[in-house]
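Anyone? Bumping this.
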Amino acid sequence: MSARATCDAASLYWQVGLRGFRRYATYRAATFAGVVTNTVFGFLRAYVFVALFSGHADVGGYDLSDTLTYTFVSQGIIMAIFLWGWWEIALGVRSGAVVTDFSRPIDYQFYWLAQDLGRSVYHLIFRGIPPFIVGALAFHLRFPQHPWTWLAFALSVELGVCVSFALRFMVNLSAFWLLDYRGVGTIMQAVWTFFSGFAIPIAFFPGALRTVSEMLPFAAMLATPVNVFLEKAQGLDLAAALAFQAGWAVVLLLVGRLMLAAATRKVVIQGG
Amino acid sequence: MADLLSIYVHIMAARMRAQLQYRVSFVLQLVGSFSLSFTDFAVVLVIFAHLPYLAGWSLGEVAFLYGTSYMAFQLSDIAVGQLDQLPVLIQSGDFDMVLIRPLGALFQVVTLDFTLRRFGAFGQGALVFALALARTDIHWTAGRVLVLTLMPVWSIPIFASVWVVGATSAFWAVRSMEVINLVTHGGQLLTQYPLQVFGAWIQRLVIFVVPLAFVNYFPSLYVLGKPDPLGAPEFVRFASPVVAIVLVVVAGRIWNFGVRHYRSTGS
């Protein structure tokens, strides 16, 4: 690809991403309702952890402040990561709209990824910051010591979004083979609710479960960004953490492309 | 009343048959509902991997709260969870149609669907409850057996009434529903744990304002023979049926008030 073509493509995806951002920015009331929900659930979980720490100073290398910070940061970024309920592609497969999308002169997977990244930036800012601020007013939360941690955190969240998107893309594509994608979708949601460290930090998992969970791609979705925020990994460890996320993102996006190729061969367009 | 019941059974049977048409999809949805709800108990298990008692409650005792809460909530959800669709009905104008039919509006809304897949989450709660019975050494008396067997009689109406009151807000502000939904879904999380875990303002809220503490917390103190660290008087443990009756009456009034103030979107 020439420099000019690369530049054009980049600008196209930038525009798609911008549309993704604006699309969600339209629904202010929904954003407000979501913020209230995440904040209240943050409080309920925080109280359970306060009770857990009444007999401990340290659980899995976290103190109470770490854990409460983990709770509110994960409630804040959950919408950016978008663990639940994204079925746009699957619905397109059902309605047949997917065929129109396939015929567009733009890469199908990258189109949705760009849109999803744009969306995630909106959700990171407007769904992420308010629950954390309210949590910080009520509990002692930990703020990053180094200014560049904020940057590393933002990057880590977006890498987490890439991993999450790659997985959601595959679950959505399963609609090409399955009559009903919702069952498989819900089972996958259960897997990533627990193994991403959203329900409870992976560091609290006992023994081998923790070791294995830390290597799975689900950890790259949520646990890694939150640990970056907590400055659990610095210097080379931080680079390794980001590389872990990027590695899974690339692998899963590639698997998604293979699935897409198989799905494209399967498409039978109903006339009409 | 008998007529209404027979209509209810008819509609629900039809909705159930529809869902059972696609066996594989249905089984996958059941498994999905079971596994997603199980992540809540996985959290409890991870917590108890680090300590023997949470706020003075053993794993078996917390499982007792968890199981009773889950089963009641899922059955309420199956019964009235369709109320979550009310804002959609109002926005689309379809609620007008509900009002001209010769059946109660609430009855029609709750019979919009019958989410059979939620029996997956219910089964998960039942399994945890069985574990609770195996792990706790309850000193069974006639009174305790009676309270335990009667628990669904008040716990389901309490959850359902809260749902109805929350849904009624949709007649005034379509978006308020999502915030009020918090009380139902947040209530499910809250009632899984001993009440003393939560902050004082939450305790007061669920005892005096949205009386979710009467779903299972106070009755469980009696069944498990535990002292109440909140220092509530003894009779509170048996107050749940009264709370449920009052709540059902209040919720019914509020719903009727909401329906009377309904203004169509005109579309």
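Late reply, but here is one note on the structure posted above: Chain A has a mean pLDDT of 91.
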